[in-house]
Amino acid sequence: MTDPPDPHPDVHPDVHPDVARLHAARPSRVADLVGTLADPAVLVLATTLVVALRSSGSVLAGLGWTLLDVSLCVGAPYGVLALLLRRGVVSDRQVVRRGERRVPLLAALGCVLVGLAVLTAAGAPRPVVALVVSMLGGLAVMTLVSHWYKASFHAGVAAGSGVVLVATLGAPASVPVAALVGLVGWARVRAGRHSPGHVAVGVVVGAVTGVLVFVPLTR
């Protein structure tokens, strides 16, 4: 009996498994679009904006805290990632290979720590500071988990942002939040970026961090 034909003959057996999964996935414009629109930077920006506007005395103040928060906690880490990408430390912007994630994660932790210090010293509203502490906790857990297992950042940020939005806007936000998390998880698997296990771990980390960190700090 002969072996069945390889459905993906272009994927070499020696290719990194994370890269092989990505190459083996069938193209999907919908999944790619969801991944782009639900990029962690976009979700953090949107969540920070909601939290800052709800906790500030004016729209202008809320926009100012959002700009400061996102610049330090999102812009700076992405800047470091761009530098690492240019130097060949990581292979792509989404860091497909798990083994390449340690350096950018540690850099992101450092940036968020600096952001937390600056925002606290500047007198940022308590919910904004709580959001940054929650981000810091999620990053720390992701860094630890990534030593052994690859978890989806898209799913983790979607779940963590979802908890923050429900805590800020109330129970009615839970339905669209759940739909968003499910859609992001599907898109990451469909695009070959992650396995279902990677998505599940990301969701657990993001949701648990939000519940255990953001919610208590804002009560």
UniProtKB/TrEMBL annotation:
SUPFAM superfamilies: MFS general substrate transporter (SSF103473). Keywords: Membrane, Transmembrane, Transmembrane helix. The chain crosses the membrane at residues 59-85, 105-122, 128-149, 161-187, 199-217. This is PAP2 superfamily protein.
